[in-house]
Amino acid sequence: MASTVYLFCFLLYVTHQVVADFHSPTIKFVPGFEGPLPFRLQTGYVGVDESEDVQLFYYFVESERNPKEDPVILWMTGGPGCSSFSALASEVGPIYFELVMYDGTLPTLVLNPNAWTKIASIIFLDLPVGTGFSYGRTPFASGSIDSQACAQAVQFLRKWFVSHPEFLSNPFYVAGDSYAGIFVAIVTQMISNGNEAGFEPSINLKGYLAGNPITYAAESNFSIPFSHGMGLISDELYECTNGINKYHILEKNCPRDAPQLRRSLSNGKRTFTDRFEETSLSAVSVSDCSVDARWLFGHWLNDELVQNALHIRKGTIGTWVRCNRDSLDFQMIITDVRAYHANLSAKGYKSLIYSGDHDFLVPFQSTQAWIRDLNYSVIDDWRPWIVEGQYAGYTRAYSNKMTFATVKGGGHTAPEYRPPECYAMFERWISNKPL
């Protein structure tokens, strides 16, 4: 309760000044994509806190269907410290990278046929400060704690809506995956509190969605029964999971970012992430691994022509990295957001919680457990949901307007592994249809 009071007071403090953000005109061309973009892309920075020393960067993709009425979604990626560009270019956004081995030339972009932006406008936010292209103007502004970052995200939103008033009446949702499950719950609560307090502009909040979300500290306890149930290990051999890809247990255990790029950014020093991933690779070499789009992100976003096209401010962050875990100045204070979910449900907000069922990091059993602890009545009991005649997963709906769904064959970032199924899931839920 004390943390909730602090969050609300902090929100009151940072929302006194609401001014327009500084955003680019519509970006029509980007290097690596042939021809004009067939969707509307905008980027920008929003200064938050009283002095605006925190500059939060975002990518905005307008809905391709009916942007005047379609939902607007704020998307945050986990880590903490992983850029929302990951979601834009490998999960729910309109582009993918062509999956070929990097040969020193600029990576090629292709369209994502299952982009959620076909039916919704999405703001991809780099949060917290120090993530992606977001930066602080002073050393003090370059660090944050979780509650502070969430309050900054809410101030960002109100400023963004001031400069984009045409979207104020659209249904609005908060979304994210992995560690951003913490952000999603807190930010949604803060928006609701601000609306109730009469802050302007009022945000047309309807609910939230979270994928394989970190929710409370004890979730790691479910990794052992998950591993045993999947036939990976006996409980006595838990330490043998070092060779498993924890993001998707059936995939090869490859580094999530190009090792050569990470070392170049750290002056050749081996980072903690390097050591962990290399020791867990076992007998699988990098050359044996299938191409991962994440390996290409840095090569594309650090290109000068690309940064010019995206209107990146020169000299603000140095080299772009997908996940800034090594130098991120961020403290995790809030480790349990189950009470936030309960409170939001009591207020009548709808929610979608989905789990790729082959994720080791946040097993679907842990998500099921905290949802069950909310003790809401089941109105649509456990059943398969179907896409193109095939089981896409299983779902259950509750009286608190919460829907839980597993994504069969999905990993930690389910839309990355099962794009058509996750698009169908999102389209049905956002349209108020049963899965």
UniProtKB/TrEMBL annotation:
Signal peptide: 1-20
Cited InterPro entries: AB_hydrolase_fold (IPR029058), Peptidase_S10 (IPR001563)
Protein name: Serine carboxypeptidase-like 18
UniProt keyword Signal, yes or no: yes
PANTHER family found in the cross-reference section: SERINE CARBOXYPEPTIDASE-LIKE 19, SERINE PROTEASE FAMILY S10 SERINE CARBOXYPEPTIDASE
One protein family per Pfam: Peptidase_S10
Organism: Daucus carota subsp. sativus (Carrot)
GO terms for biological process, alphabetical: proteolysis; secondary metabolic process
Family per similarity comment: Belongs to the peptidase S10 family.
Source taxonomy: Eukaryota, Viridiplantae, Streptophyta, Embryophyta, Tracheophyta
